[in-house]
Design a protein that fits this description.
The two termini are 18 Å apart. By secondary structure, the protein is α/β, with parallel strands linked by helices. Helix 2 (24-34) packs across helix 3 (46-59), helix 11 packs parallel to helix 12 and helix 12 crosses helix 13. It is built from 14 helices and 13 strands. Bound molecules: iron/sulfur cluster.
Length: 452
Amino acid sequence: MGLVSLLQKNIESKVKAAIGTGDSRLMSVVGKIASHPGIAERVYGEGEVFLFKSALFMTGVRLDESAFDGVGTRFKEDLGQRHYDPDARRSRTRPVPHGILMPHGLFLPLTIEDRSPFLLKRDAGQLYLYLDELRLFPVDYEPRPGWYSRDTSTGIPMRHVGVHRLRRQVLFEFNAYCKFFSDKTPCLFCGIISDRPLLPRRYKDHFSASPLEIAEVVEAAYGEGLATEMQVTGGVLPGQVELDYFLEVGRAMQERLGTKTIRGSQAVLAPPPKIEDIDALKEAGWEGVAFNAEIFDAKLWPGMVPGKAGLMTQEKWLASLEHAARVFGKGNAASVLVAGLEPMKSHLAGVEWMAERGIFGVPIPFSPAASSALEGFQTPTAAWHLSATAKVLDIWERHGLDADRHSSAGLHYADLARMRAHVQHDRREQPDRDWGNDLRWQLSVEGKLPET
Ligand code: SF4
């Protein structure tokens, strides 16, 4: 074995030992990539950085003292927003960063994990991602939104009303409660109720913010240019009274922003009992809706989402989505389809069924939430998710649905779609090259992890 190979082997085994846990195939690939000699000088490609992002998602990251500099003043702090934030419930004694901007336009919300082999540390002022002692590449934090330092006209800090996430979104959670928990029929994967103490009820018994407060924060966030989309979400309430709230919020935004349709707005709720109320949501200014069916397989549906199945049949849920697609237009109706809770075949059948009707079936990987019935379970392997996501992108492409959609910034499927566009562009420029060996091609087009 030559000196270079020997060095490479040593670093590789050190990296694998440091990572230790998680998806063994993914970690093996990441260890291999990180173990190339000349690591400090190496400029990682889009495929490599995507794999580091995947590994970071699974292992979390440690923070060197220097990584706290400016967090909560110059840089955005994590406010415990729950959606797509596995770190939401962690107690904080001082501000911690919400996410990192990585090379090639990749972004990741952070999980702070003191045992992680990954470390964030500043050298001469520049923030870097380290793997054990190996400096991988420079990263950055997002700037702190200006509205995080402002109050509503009612004197409430705006950051307690709406938080910035997914690079360009202001998110409003109207509560962290769902009646299905009281009914003992929550969706098996859902842990929303454990967040309840974070959100005091301040409006009409159930809601954490008034419609006017939401409208003011949207105006501030859009005005700053840091947000181009907004979302309101929360649990299902007795009598589905959240529907009236969505109508009130829509009208408050129409009035405040002086526009009939609120650009980039999405209401996330269960389908209203009366189908014509979907039209009322449109009238109230919403640009799109998400009715999250979660599961497509008709037999698994009542078992996985028993509260939803008690509210209405799956047939009616899907008919509501179809109606929403007609009312709001192609690409403006969506439903999460949790990836990894049903066979890939029925998951993809759901994505296809929806895409045929201009609806996004959004593949959000199953992640076992604390306090959920599936706490402690494991999601399928990275290889499974990669394969499923590449097939979802194929389906969307066939039906003219753009993966760069509402709530997609920073998510794996949008990363892979962008990577696919880049490698397809390069392939057109160099048609004679063997593209089967290109990591970006393997990941985003073939949906495969490379061989180790
Ligand atoms: S409807 Fe299901 S996923 Fe939504 S908050 Fe209730 S239990 Fe959770």
